[in-house]
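Schema walkthrough. Field components (list of strings):
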Amino acid sequence: MSYNEAKQAYARFGVDTDAAIAKLKEIPVSLHCWQGDDVRGFDTDPSKPLTGGIQTTGNYPGRAATPEQLMADIDEVLKLVPGKMKLNLHASYAIFEDGEWADRDRLEPKHFRRWVEFCRERGLGCDFNPTFFSHEKCDPLTLSSPDPETRRFWIDHGRACIRIASYLAEELGEPCVMNIWTGDGFKDVPGDRMGPRMRYKESIDAILEEPYDFTKVKPCVESKVFGIGVEAFTAGSAEFSLSYAAFNRDKCIPLMDNGHYHPTEVVSDKIPALLTFFPEIALHVTRPIRWDSDHVVAYDDETREIAKEIIRCGAERVDIALDFFDAGINRIAAWVVGTRNLEKALLFALLQPADELKKLQDESRFTELLALQEELKTLPFSDVWAAFCEAEGVPAGYEWMDEVKAYEQKILEERR
Ligand code: RNT
Ligand code: ZN
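Field assembly_structure (string):
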């Protein structure tokens, strides 16, 4: 079928495909740099383990080990994904020049100068994350540690990151979402739950005392139910993080990662729940399998449901970021598949006759509501997707894989 026929098929349901494509082009999605190197970064010894309750599994060859390699890999991904991207960096991706090195409490904007150049040349905005893991100062706690010196170090890190986030926003002319997540927690039943929570709260308060313009720097607090090695307790639980954000609405926003809840909970449903009260929320889109496994985002029911809620509630109120890392398959392919899938889900959502569906529900016409939603699933979506990809200058179909294979042969295999 051609795009024109697809356009007519959707028009019969009152959906304007041109408008959907135009809208999708304007919705920023933050591309996480950490898929390229298994969340290693450049500021610590790469042979040391990843800590903080997260884990990458697999050792597919070709991991990016230098800033140049990671930048080249990101460029390869950008060639193959449609849509408006931002880059999402972690503090551990600081680039030190001339043999200089700075610990995390001493990081400065200049350590991200090359990332600014990278983003500017490609017209990308940039988001940022303090890195409260994979570091010797995790005792293993960070912001909730009972040791004031440990807390001081990590508070200083958070404050340094606010300054860096301001710099990124200023230089690139787009707001910088700065996400606070720690793996603070315990493997087994704690002897004290309140202490760590109170310290965590006070530490985040101290970080947010660093001055910033909330229209440009958007600190978030990301919650989590459990992690590897921190199965029994996490300081930044859902109730803690949400309450923190609610009580500090004038200076931070809540972030939901859809891998961070009990397996039968869905983030799609939580989006309008939070947007009832918060002007803006942030998301990490991932795919949990039985746990927070951070599999590559699939074009599955929950991803589509998340996308529908983003679109229906207003994409301008949701900061969308990707957060997955698979070291068991070609990392570039993993990035491309997951990112294209989120874009597909957003397009699918934009191609829903939202007003009609709402009307059917409000008029209690539930038979038609079900029937119509099922009918929409088999409209010629792939033709609209192809038109979107074409307009964005990226391959529409599986031919993108040829490009990844060629890159693997030419570049990745050289890294062995
Ligand atoms: C971990 C959190 C966190 C990290 C990144 C690397 O469970 O989801 O967002 O994945 O910051
Ligand atoms: Zn996350």
